[in-house]
Design goal:
By secondary structure, the protein is of the alpha+beta class. Helix content is 51%, strand content 20%. It has 13 helices and 17 strands. The chain has a 5-stranded antiparallel β-sheet, sandwiched between helices. It has a 5-stranded antiparallel β-sheet with strand order 7-6-10-9-8, with helices on both faces. Strand 1 and strand 2 form a beta hairpin. It is rod-shaped and about 200 Å long. The protein binds adenosine-5'-triphosphate and magnesium ion. The site of magnesium ion (MG) has 5 residues, from helix 11.
C-alpha cells in the first residue's frame, strides 16, 4: 500500500491559532484594564481636587458671611447717637456705656473678639475687648486701607502672637467730618472646625515663621490656652489643628512638597490620607500661612480597589468566554479539516489503487496477447517441425527406399502450415493498420451493400442477409474502409454462430446515446444463432479471446477499436440459444445532409 508523504499530514489548526489569539486577547485585556484604571484614577483625582477646592471656597464663604455679620453689627452701632457724641468728645466712659452691652452680645453670640474705636489719627480711643489698653497708635493694613479708601475694608490679619483674625474697619463719618474708625474682628479658628464638620476633612492651620517672633507666639499660645506646635516644622508654626494627632509621615520634606503645589497620599495608622494645601493671604495680599487639608480616603481607596478587582474579574471572565468559544470554533474547523484531509487521503489511495489495477490489466492483456500470438503461431510451427521430420524420413537413406509421393504430400502440408502462419501474420498486420483513420461523408446504404456483397462471396452457408435502413439516403462522416471491415467481421461472426437457414439482419437507425444523450446512429447486426453465455460475453473484446478452434480472437477487438476511433461505442446483447445483436453507435456530428456530394466508397 502506498504511504502518504509526511508533508501531507493534517496541520494542527488549534495549536497554531489558539496561542497567538490568547496573546492578542491578553494584550487587549491589559489595555482595557489600564484604560479603566486610568479613568478610575482620573475620577478619583478629580474628586480629591474638588474637595480641596471646596475647602478653599467654603473658607472664603465663611469669611464673607462673618464679614457681613460684622458689617451689620457695625452699622447698628453707628446709628447710636449717644455713642457718636461720646466718640466726638473722646468720652471713653460714654463709649463703654453705649457699646459695652452690644459688644458683650456680639462676643457671646457671634464670637466677635475685637471691637475698637480709633481716632482719625489712628490712636485707639477705646478697646471694648481690652478697655485698659488705649492711646496707642494702630498701624494695621486694614486701618491704613480704610483710611486711604475712606470705605469699609476687611481681610485676614495676623497678630504678633500668630493669631489669625478677620478684621473689618470702617471710617465713621458724619457729613464731611471724619469722626474716627470703628473696627470689628474675630478669630477664625472656629471656622476650621465648621469646615471639618461640613466636608469631613481635617485641617491644619500653619503660620509662616518669618512673620512671627517665637517668644511672642508662645506667650499668645499661653494666653489663649492653646497647644500649637512651634518645632513640628522648620518653616511654619502649627497654629491650630482639627485632629489631635498629626500623621507621622507629615514632615518637613512632605510639607515642602505640599507647599510647592503638589498633593500627596500617605498611610497613617491603617488609614489612607490625601493631603493638599490651601494658601492663606492677609488683607494686604501677603502669604502668611497655609491650611493643610487632610482627607481620609480609605473608603475611596477600598471602593477603587474593589471596582478595579471587579473590572479585572469581569475582563477575565469575558476573555475566558471568548477564548473558550474560539477554542470550540477552532476545534470544529480542525475536525472538518481533518475529515477533508482523510477524504483526500482516501481518494489518493483509491486513485493509486486504480492506476495499479489498470497497470495490471494492461500487463494481463499484454500477457494474453503474447499468449494468443504464441498459440496462433505455435500450432502451425509444431506442425511444420513434425511434418519436416516425417518428410526427412520419407526421403529414405541408410538402405531404406524413399517415398517421393509421401514426401511431396508432407511438403504440401508444410506449405499449408506456413500459409496459415502467413495468414495469421497478415491479420495481425491488418489489425495494426486499423489506427490509420480517415473519415469522409459516406452514403451508408452503399457501404452496407458493398459489404454484404463481399460477405456473400466468402460465406459458404448462403445465409439470407436482410438490410433495414430507417433512412436509406443517410450519409455519415466515417472512415468507410474501417466501418466496412467492422461490419464484415460482425457478419462473419454472425454467420459462424448461426446454423443453416438462420437469417442475419443489418439495421441502421437514428438513436441518441443512452448515457450522454448525444444524437447519433446505430449500425447493428443481429442473428438467431447460438448466442453467448455471460462468461463468454465478458471476454469477447479481449484480443485473442476466441471460442473457435480456428479463430484468432481479433474480430471483435477490431470492431471496438473502429467504434472508438469514430468516438462511438459497441454494445452487445445476447441470449444463449436465441441469438446475438451487436450494435455500433456512431455520433451524429459526423453526418452530412443527404444532398451533399458523397465520397466514393
Ligand atoms: N454473433 C455471435 N454469436 C455468438 N458468439 C459470438 C458472436 N460473435 C462473436 N462471438 C464469440 O466471440 C468470440 C470472439 O469473436 P472474434 O470475432 O473476436 O474472434 P473469432 O471470431 O473467434 O476469431 P476471428 O474473428 O479472429 O477469426 C468468438 O470466438 C465467439 O465465441
Ligand atoms: Mg470473428
Amino acid at each position: 500500500m502506498n504511504q502518504v508523504p509526511s508533508s501531507r499530514q493534517p496541520k494542527r489548526v488549534k495549536a497554531k491559532f489558539i496561542g497567538p489569539f490568547a496573546l492578542v486577547l491578553a494584550f487587549i485585556m491589559c489595555v482595557f484594564a489600564v484604560a479603566i484604571y486610568g479613568i478610575e484614577a482620573r475620577i478619583r483625582d478629580r474628586d480629591l481636587a474638588e474637595r480641596s477646592t471646596a475647602v478653599a471656597n467654603l473658607f472664603a464663604q465663611k469669611l464673607d458671611k462673618d464679614t457681613n455679620l460684622m458689617m451689620a453689627a457695625m452699622r447698628a452701632l453707628m446709628t447710636n447717637e449717644a455713642m457718636e457724641r461720646a466718640l466726638r468728645a473722646g468720652d471713653r466712659a460714654g463709649l463703654a456705656r453705649q457699646g459695652g452691652e452690644l459688644f458683650a452680645r456680639l462676643r457671646d453670640d457671634h464670637r466677635i473678639t475685637h471691637l475698637y474705636l480709633t481716632r482719625p489719627d489712628f490712636v485707639t480711643l477705646y478697646r471694648f475687648h481690652s478697655p485698659d489698653e488705649h492711646g496707642d497708635t494702630i498701624a494695621r493694613v486694614t486701618l491704613q486701607q480704610a483710611h486711604e479708601r475712606q470705605a469699609a475694608v476687611h481681610g485676614l490679619e495676623m497678630g504678633a502672637m500668630g493669631t489669625l483674625t478677620l478684621r473689618l474697619v470702617m471710617p465713621w463719618r458724619r457729613g464731611d467730618a471724619l469722626l474716627g474708625y470703628i473696627e470689628v474682628g474675630e478669630e477664625i479658628e472656629h471656622m476650621i472646625d465648621e469646615i471639618r464638620r461640613s466636608l469631613s476633612v481635617d485641617i491644619l492651620v500653619l503660620v509662616d515663621k518669618r512673620h512671627l517672633q517665637e517668644p511672642q507666639w508662645r506667650r499668645g499660645q499661653d494666653l489663649m490656652n492653646r497647644s500649637g506646635a512651634w518645632e513640628r516644622f522648620a518653616s511654619h508654626a502649627v497654629q491650630a489643628q482639627t485632629t489631635e494627632r498629626l500623621p507621622a509621615a507629615l514632615d518637613d520634606s512632605l510639607l515642602a512638597q505640599l507647599l510647592a503645589g503638589r498633593t500627596a497620599e500617605i498611610r497613617d495608622g491603617g488609614r489612607s490620607l490625601h493631603l493638599a494645601v490651601v494658601p492663606v493671604e492677609d488683607a494686604g495680599g501677603v502669604h502668611i500661612g497655609d491650611l493643610v487639608v487632610m482627607r481620609d480616603i480609605s473608603a475611596l481607596e477600598a471602593t477603587f480597589q474593589w471596582s478595579m478587582a471587579a473590572v479585572l474579574l469581569i475582563s477575565l471572565l469575558v476573555a475566558g468566554g471568548v477564548l473558550g468559544m474560539f477554542y470550540l470554533a477552532l476545534d470544529r474547523v480542525e475536525r472538518d479539516y481533518r475529515r477533508q484531509h482523510d477524504l483526500e487521503h482516501q481518494l489518493l489511495r483509491l486513485d493509486t489503487e486504480h492506476r495499479r489495477i489498470l497497470q495490471m490489466e494492461k500487463l494481463s492483456a499484454l500477457g494474453t496477447m503474447v499468449g494468443g500470438i504464441a498459440h496462433q503461431l505455435n500450432n502451425p510451427l509444431v506442425g511444420v517441425v513434425n511434418l519436416a521430420q516425417l518428410a526427412e524420413r520419407e526421403l529414405g537413406g541408410n538402405g531404406q527406399p524413399g517415398d517421393p509421393e509421401r514426401t511431396r504430400e508432407l511438403l504440401r502440408e508444410i506449405r499449408g502450415a506456413g500459409e496459415d502462419c502467413r495468414a495469421f501474420v497478415k491479420r495481425m498486420l491488418a489489425f495494426s493498420k486499423v489506427s490509420c483513420f480517415e473519415s469522409k461523408p459516406t452514403p451508408m446504404a452503399d457501404l452496407i451493400e458493398d459489404t454484404v456483397l463481399l460477405f456473400r462471396q466468402t460465406e459458404s452457408k448462403h445465409l439470407p442477409v436482410e438490410v433495414r435502413l430507417s433512412e436509406p439516403t443517410a450519409v455519415l462522416t466515417v472512415d468507410p474502409v474501417l466501418i466496412r471491415h467492422a461490419l464484415f467481421n460482425l457478419l462473419v461472426n454472425a454467420a459462424q454462430a448461426t446454423g443453416d437457414g438462420g437469417a442475419i439482419v443489418i439495421t441502421l437507425e437514428r438513436e441518441a446515446d443512452t448515457v450522454s444523450g448525444l444524437p447519433g446512429w446505430i449500425l447493428a447486426v443481429s442473428d438467431h444463432g447460438r448466442g453467448m453465455a455471460p462468461e463468454v460475453m465478458e471476454k469477447i473484446f479481449v484480443p485473442f479471446y476466441t471460442t473457435r478452434s480456428d479463430g484468432t480472437g481479433l474480430g471483435l477487438p477490431v470492431v471496438q477499436h473502429v467504434a472508438l476511433l469514430h468516438e462511438g461505442q459497441v454494445t452487445v446483447s445476447s441470449e444463449p440459444g436465441h441469438g446475438t445483436r451487436f450494435a455500433i453507435w456512431l455520433p451524429e456530428r459526423h453526418a452530412l445532409p443527404p444532398d451533399n456530394e458523397p465520397a466514393p466508397t
